[in-house]
Specification:
By secondary structure, the protein is an alpha/beta fold. It has 15 helices and 16 strands.
Amino acid sequence: MKKINILLIVSLALCAHAERLLFRGATVHTVSGQTLAPGDVLVDGRKILEVAAKIDPKGAQVIEVKGQHLYPGLIAANTTLGLVEIPGVLATRDTSEVGQFTPDVQSWIAINPDSELIPVARANGITHAQPVPSGGIVPGLSGVIALSGWTTEEMTIRKPVALHLTWPSMDLDTRSRDEVRDKSSFKSLEDQARDRRAKLKDIDEFFGEAKAYARARTDKSIVPAWEAMMPLVRGEIPLMIRADDARQIKAAVKWADTNGFYAVIVGGESSAEVAELLASKKIPVIYDSVWAFPGKDTKSYDAQFKAPAVLHRAGVKVVFCESGRFEASMVRNLPYVAAQAVAFGLPADEALKGITLYPAQVLGVDERLGSIDAGKEASLFVADGDILDIRSHVKRMWIAGQEVSLTTRHTRLYEKYRSRPPSGVSATTAAQ
């Protein structure tokens, strides 16, 4: 009898969360197909049931969104969101471990579910993110999290989604010893070339040993660090290679091709210069340099603005991300990174895919996220205009069918100081 009662309680609790909703009359940006203007979307619990120009409510709670825009949740790829709170405070930074090769580092377990930056990102349409480790040559594994939940386990929706590799710099410091302030740090061109060859050798040996471990592995010889490499060796996840210079990208692509790894270029500041190579190898680019200064004084001022359009015309899939020291705070600007590329030649539908469907595909979660399609997860938001337009505002949001709050530290402070009594008037008098 007790077992039946417990099952009944659990069933009722699940039913309470499984709301049937009908979004009616919005401009529905499906992303994967045509935009419906107007259109309806029927949601049952966590899933999207139907997307059409007109849908019978069938007993669903109707949410009138006429004149507004309905989008799939945005996905922030290659971010430190949840791993960093205040860059200047060491205790709030958890992005890296000691050592050059730490493949067993798992970014998703270090997420701070109570980060004040998560609601800020959510308030501008971001429902999911890929927090990534940094530091060293192989800094670890990354997963995908939903920006809602009480614990890291509850937030994590797929793990791992990628192993990360930082490709050695191909630049040469041509300054003479006399031009270097710290003489002890001076390295000749020969020394620099030797260091680079040593790093490349270390990378070859490390990944070679991982393959050897996979061949010789038994239940009695399990090594955690090598176990972390197995999803990559088995071809289950991509290798995300941090490379910006064209020479870096060429070398990384050739190496990955030789070793049989599915590669994704991250950063890609000069990726437009090797767009044809990337397209021929079907290698996506997670591009973080839209707002960066051109790396060379020989480049035009708009080289970084136009790069996504150049990559797209060549046939390269472009995913947008925010970068820099304050990227965890500024990831909220993700839609405007994509919009900047639109202003310099990238089609608007491609820019939208670059923050929704394409990251979902690269991260292996496109069966549930990235577009508004029947069968996918009901992670959606309503905006009062085009999300690529800085004047638009996100009005409501649902993650896996559950509506989430758009209240942030910013809105709380705004309300607090908006209600502050006028100068010279006490709080007691103002209350009266």
